Amino acid sequence: MPVNKAKTSNVQTMLRAIINGQSSMKAELLGEFKKVNKKIEDLDQKIDGVELRLTKRIDTLGEDIARLEDDAPTWKAHDKLEKRVTKIEKKLAFS
To answer: Can you give the residue ranges of every domain in the chain?
Structure first.
């Protein structure tokens, strides 16, 4: 019987070593997963910041374009201006 106890003790020791190794590997993997998740969260925050800045810039450009369109003469106004200039040129030519 002492041989069986020694065999059982060796088997238990080997199983315990395997289980401890697996637990250690699991802990390392969980640590690495947490690091990866942290990096993903940081990257997501950076992307959100870039998106906000770009959206703000696009909005500013849109407002600038709208103001330029408001200030620019329409075709109708441009034609009227051209007619007025022509009339003034004719008056100056007769003077």
So the answer is: 2-94
Instruction: Name, in order, each residue with C-beta under 8 angstroms of 73's C-beta and a sequence gap of 6 or more.
Output: 81
Q: What angle do CA 72, 76, 81 make, to 5 degrees?
A: 75
Tokens 């992307």 locate to 47
Contact 77, 69 (CB under 8 A): no
pLDDT digits (tens, 9 = 90+) for 58-91: 999 999 888 887 777 777 877 888 888 888 888 8
DSSP string covering 34-65, please?
Answer: HHHHHHHHHHHHHHHHHHHHHHHHHHHHHHHH
81: Cβ contacts below 8 Å, ≥ 6 apart: 73
